[in-house]
Amino acid sequence: MLFNSIIPFAEPITTTENDRSFFDPSYTTTSLTANKPSDSVSHKNRSQGATGSPLSSECEVWTKACSEAVLGLAKRPENVKWLKSLRRKIHANPELAFEEFETSKLIRHELDRMEVMYKYPLAKTGLRAWIGTGSAPFVAIRADMDALPIQEAVEWEHKSKVAGKMHACGHDAHVAMLIGAAKILKSREHLLKGTVILLFQPAEEAGNGAKRMIGDGALENVEAIFAVHVSHEHPTAIIGSRPGPLLAGCGFFRAVISGKRGPAGNPHHSVDPILAASAAVISLQGIVSREANPLDSQVVSVTSFNGGNNLDMIPDTVVLGGTFRAFSNTSFYQLLQRIEEVIVEQASVYRCSAMVDFFEKENTIYPPTVNDEKMYEHVRKVAIDLVGPTNFRVVPPMMGAEDFSFYSEVVPAGFFYIGIRNETLGSTHTGHSPFFMIDEDVLPIGAAAHASIAERYLIEQG
């Protein structure tokens, strides 16, 4: 995720399982039967209920007791220990976008042990697993897998073993929570009134992982999709979301303004791209301030300006660039259009030419992430049952961006945050910081949230 800060909104909730033990490499999930991992395209279930019997009654109609049963499964001490071990393995071995081969192998190994079917690969390293009846309705839950090119500065036993790479955005926790949800759902498979699709996605940070997953069939038959992102702004296990626009659309631009090189002492012998570029920068500021509805949040920021380093020469070209953001597709693509028009036309005023690149071939454009109102309401109900009404908050929109937005353009979607902030542990740093860390007590809560969202959706939509 491309991060901006969010407003903190609640006090931490108390969790009943406070297991902070370090990972024991010999530990395995004793309730599962080991199977060798495989790279084959599809794996079939060999038995029902491979992960043990559920704690609840049939849950024909979802009640708070069903939520408590799911949370109880997630917070069993052996499951908490297992979730932490998974997250720590992934954290210590970070892989960048489309390089998540070992992460994917670990996921497949765990799914094999649970006897969960999956298709691999999608989008090079991703996979699509499924649990349930194999028939409609189909609901998807997604986790991103990639790390960032950052050198970890946190000193702890499970620090990144790979120089210059770090899980500085919590995707290691996202994967662990989704694997945890798979275990819960598998144990309750006989209760599912349809099919849960689990998407393990590469390259969220690169901006095109979601698009490639969709192109490879990740959303086939899917009628709704949900995802969670950890947040350092919110106390551990607090859940937050909002209906409608949640995260901004984000794009980048690079413009090359061309003139004619000449001596600075005789500017009339040149065509000055510095002057043209300066005028373009000033004019770009008027797009938001004078063309956008003040109630429609938008941003255009020029962040780079390079005309060379010869103090006695007017250069041939100036390169400038920056970012733009908006909360609706209409506003977002209007900004894109106007940025190009303003730069090109301003350059022409000063006898220069200009070309603007929005990196569309590199898939660095993220549309806005928009929560469907019904899907948001579903997340809200699930969260209140799991963590209580005082521990769910309606959060403000933020200017960060997420490639989950590509899914939300195709099917109704619900994106939500779960807090990881714990001052005692030092988990207070923003995503993409070398000091980023999480409070691992969030892992069973996140796994239970995923599982409850999916199972309850099938009951209520089936």
Automatic annotation (TrEMBL):
Its GO biological process annotations read: auxin metabolic process; jasmonic acid metabolic process
Cofactor annotation comment: The Mn(2+) ion enhances activity.
- Annotated region (Disordered), positions in chain: 33-55
Which residues of the sequence carry a binding annotation for Mn(2+)?
C169, H171, E205, H229, H432
Q: Which cofactor does it need?
A: Mn(2+)
Q: Give all residue intervals belonging to the Peptidase M20 dimerisation domain.
A: 253-347
Keyword presence, Manganese = yes
Keywords recorded for this protein, A-Z: Hydrolase, Manganese, Metal-binding, Signal
Keyword Hydrolase appears in the UniProt entry: yes
User: What's the protein called, per UniProt?
Assistant: Peptidase M20 dimerisation domain-containing protein
